[in-house]
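User: I'm putting together a teaching handout on how sequence relates to shape, and I'd like one worked example. Could you take Glyoxylase-like metal-dependent hydrolase (Beta-lactamase superfamily II) from Extensimonas vulgaris, show the sequence you're using, and then write out its predicted structure as tokens right after it?

Assistant: Happy to. First the sequence, then the structure tokens directly below it.
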Amino acid sequence: MLQYRTIPVTPFQQNCSIVWCDATHEAAFIDPGGDIDRLLAEARRLGVKPTQIWLTHAHIDHAGGAGELAQRLGIPIVGPHPGDQFWIDGLAQQSAAFGFAPAVPFTPTRWLYDGDSVQVGQETLQVRHTPGHTPGHVVFHAPQIDRAFVGDVLFAGSIGRTDFPGGNHQQLIDSIVQRLWPMGDQTVFIPGHGPESTFGRERRSNPFVGGT
């Protein structure tokens, strides 16, 4: 069974999730934007062994702690899609612009593409490329537990911003409709900020994509 725990980090209250395989206790951090000591303490409390870092996209509040965490644990960084290379290249500027501690630079060990999969222990998650908020945004779908980790594509009652460099509103809407909705109305999604919701609820009531 795949388990997860979500911990809001950084002044932006970004949802970093620790996902792990019950059988092996191997774990991955999804979007460790910062507060590394707190994340490591939570992993110890859960009794899991972090073996990977997975990134949905490379905005500072999602990726700002990835380089330091990878260095400290000696683990790979997986994702996002190479469309976010310019955001990774600009992490130092992002840190300064938003008042974050300087980010440790990194190069992903593995880029992700639509249709790829990632594995932690005995559990596999499917990868979908979902541009719009950023060009290289990806999401992680765990159909075995009806969960999706969607970064900043979709929120409870809202959608991701598209006014940053590389953002595209129509691409974002297309990503939601063509990539997320087919995962099923019953799927609970963990957004990059705020509470969980379901795709069905958002299809019905989200003012930006309701009725699509």
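A couple of points you could highlight for students: The chain has a mean pLDDT of 97. Residues 2-205 form a domain with the Metallo-beta-lactamase; Chain A fold (CATH 3.60.15.10).
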